[in-house]
Amino acid sequence: MKLSIVIVNYNVKHLLEKCLKTVCTACANIDAEVFVIDNASTDGSKEYLQDKFHQVQFIWSNTNLGFSKANNRVLPLVTGSHILFLNPDTLVPADCFEKSLNFFQQHPDAGALGVRMVDGVGKFLPESKRGVPNAWNTGCKMMGGPFLFPSAAVFAGYYAPSIDEKGTGPVAVLSGAFMMVSKECLAVVKGFDEDFFMYGEDIDISCRIEAAGFTNYYVGSITITHLKGGSTQKSSSHYTQHFFDSMRIFVQKHYSRFHPLTYLLYIGIEMARLFSNTKRILVSLFKS
Length: 288
Description:
Shape: globular
Structural class: alpha/beta
CATH superfamily of the largest domain: Spore Coat Polysaccharide Biosynthesis Protein SpsA, Chain A
Strand content: 15-25%
CATH topology of the largest domain: Spore Coat Polysaccharide Biosynthesis Protein SpsA, Chain A
Largest sheet: 9 strands, mixed
């Protein structure tokens, strides 16, 4: 089995450097290739990185393609039996890739695999595993249900509470920060949907993987560090626009337009967008 690792970079050269060091260590005992596609970074990533990692294949885009399109651009170049889509703000342990590939060998029904993620201080990130993104679970998530009632499946279904953070089992949705997919599965689902510029593309492809008859597995015995948001500023208007636009695209694509809860989701998305924009403006005024 050969692993192809694909990382999209945008203005996080120092985080990516740390990430690639752990990736190269984890590739020591496996057949692997590493691709980094840079989305027209302006932080000097090219000059800083390309001579530090000669085993990495760098692709330098002249424009910011977004997450989905950048990953898809690399897919025709990969030669591995499995492809790992990895964020540049992650750190992986030395045995991470070997364990992940072994899991695929033991589970022939697996289309994609995700792992337990913790933040920089070791706190578990609940988005490591997610449940069915139906209107109820999504609505409860937007209303804070998983945080108010974390052990109540009826309200916390968005984060798949039936599986322990260190457990293993099928889940509906995996995180795009670490998503390993078989090449066979990718050939069927045809990569990421490029309508998603940033955010939501991992939920969309997870749903399409299941719809194609494959299984998404969460493997809690493998842990990585996800420093989160290194290449985005969540207080920026660009973040707000891309995030809520992605939510709207997902609802339009996967939910029945005639279902009453769908209309409630649209209302919830726009209310959340308004709240986020208002909060950003107020914070900016306060700082001024």
